[in-house]
Write a structure and sequence with these properties.
Distance between the termini: 41 Å
Radius of gyration: 23 Å
CATH topology of the largest domain: Tetracycline Repressor, domain 2
Low-confidence stretches: 1-8
Largest sheet: none
Structural class: mainly alpha
CATH class of the largest domain: Mainly Alpha
């Protein structure tokens, strides 16, 4: 499918919607270089250095080739970012759908937790998900799995997209904020637990934060050997249960 220019046929560009001619290796092309290796190196660089520092020149240096060698496999940097985004989507766990009596709630938890874990491993992916069409084969396989799981919930087809948006937008927001906090702590050389302790110490004797401190104490966020990650995991699990309970409640509620 060729890209179109202007007029009624204009559409967002995506590497997944644009056909490229088959690659034929030219003289001078580095031996052993292929698209899979380029995408894998892209993911490694994005993980280690972040999206802001990523460039085709930096990628070429990582691979030990020229930038033109990379452009032989992709037309633009954006195309490569889309490929990287779909590559990490392949890391997300899909539930075993073969048992006839499998609980859709457990399957949805597997999908939501896999999505969270991917966003925490690859914080750069959160921004790209908001900028690019997420229609690669691995991303689509994940989306199809969510639709099949929701079909088993008994929720009407008309409400399915809204239910999935509620669940996965929550996971996206929760994971993105957590990843940003963790990145800030790493940049400052401070452990997440130490950061939380510093915050508590700073606000514990300030009257405007009294309600927050009381709630935190009653919720046992501080002390008792619980780490900040334990707290975040517990909150995530409970919030996800609330999402699932909401789906069940709306499923049993008469439609408009």
């Amino acid at each position: 499918m060729a890209a179109t220019d202007g007029g009624a046929g204009k559409r967002p560009h995506s590497v997944w919607l644009t056909e490229r001619p088959p690659l034929t290796r030219k003289a001078g092309q580095p031996a052993g270089l292929d698209l899979d290796k380029i995408v894998a190196a892209t993911v490694r660089l994005l993980d280690s250095e972040g999206l802001a520092k990523f460039s085709m020149r930096r990628l070429a240096a990582e691979l030990g080739v020229t930038a033109m060698s990379v452009y032989w496999y992709v037309d633009t940097k954006d195309d490569l970012l889309e490929l990287a985004m779909d590559a990490v989507a392949g890391e997300m766990t899909l539930p075993d759908e073969s048992p006839a009596d499998a609980d859709w709630r457990d399957q949805l938890r597997v999908l939501a937790t896999g999505y969270r874990d991917m966003l925490l491993r690859h914080p750069w992916a959160a921004r790209l998900l908001g900028e690019f069409l997420n229609v690669g084969p691995r991303s689509t396989a994940f989306s199809n799995a969510t639709l099949r799981v929701m079909a088993r919930s008994g929720l009407s087809v008309e409400r399915t997209s809204g239910a999935l948006a509620s669940v996965f937008h929550f996971v996206y927001g929760f994971s993105t904020i957590r990843a940003l906090h963790e990145a800030r702590c790493r940049a400052a050389g401070v452990a997440l637990d130490d950061y939380f302790e510093l915050v508590v110490a700073a606000i514990s004797d300030r009257p405007e934060f009294a309600e927050t401190m009381e709630l935190s104490t009653r919720a046992a966020y501080a002390g008792e050997g619980r780490s900040a990650l334990d707290m975040l995991d517990r909150d995530f699990a409970f919030a996800l249960d609330l999402q699932i309970a909401g789906i069940e409640a709306m499923r049993d509620r008469p439609g408009d």
